[in-house]
Amino acid sequence: MPESDLLPQSIRLAPSEIYFSQDSISSLVHVSPHGGGKIPILKALEGILRGVIDVERIVTFDVVRVEGKFFALSGNRRLYIYRTLQKVGFLSSVKVTLYPLELFHMDWLSMKFTTTSEGETVQVRVRDSHYFLRRQEAVLRRYGYGPSTASDSGDEDDITLDLDEEHLSRQRTKIRNKKKIKKSRPNLRAHHAEECSRLRHARRTKLYKAELEKRYDAKKMMKTADREAKRRLFNDLAMAEAESVGRSSNQSINRQDTPRQGGPTKRERTMSRLALKTQRMINCDERVKEPQKKLAETCRLEEEVILCIRYLFVAE
Known about the structure:
Helix content: 55-70%
Radius of gyration: 52 Å
Strand order of the largest sheet: 1-8-6-7-2
CATH class of the largest domain: Alpha Beta
CATH architecture of the largest domain: Alpha-Beta Complex
Number of domains: 2
Low-confidence stretches: 148-163, 252-260
Number of strands: 9
């Protein structure tokens, strides 16, 4: 293929010969060749009809030829305006830039072409398409290019006023709905705050009950451990006392049992110390937090008592 065939060409085509490549377009269009923002399609259409916007100075768009048909790669919104103006006889052709199909990748073209009607029609993305078309017809009739159904210009003005009134009524409805929402918002916030407060209170109550149950279980375990330790200690003391009584009845009185200077004997002093330690352990008001520590201390005292008793018997 010659290299000249791969270069873009500037040609003029009728808007009806160019097909849309997209299935829908936005309601805003970019018409200024020097940058700037976008304007609504109806405003651009009215500007062209009034002569404020020159069609020849609008930014050109690119087309590509696929199977003998010209498709717009860019400028589908401008093509919509041109087709509308061609229908009313305002223009017959526009200037476009034709690109060879070989310059583009097929995957990119398949993503670009979203039309579902083979480019014949396109949908403008507006909230109310019926209202948009009625406004478009009113703009065309205002400048004498649309299909006139009224007898004079006064009727056309009435149609435009009716459209404006319809639009204003919808705006008033939206404003009323917003006011209702704004008015009911404090009640919704109060209800939401009350619900959150109730949930927080329920959660705190649940956690508090769980903490109380945990403390009650720990206290119950401590009491059970203390009671078991006391029972074992008393049993050991009773057994030791019974053994000491049995041995003393079978043996003679030892020298250690004789009182010194009218005081108690060594056995009596030792037994008094053991009884005092046992009484202190039983009447102790301080409680350790963990039952294991209390049980360990009790076992240690128990072993000490048993060792003292054994020491007495060995000494005898």
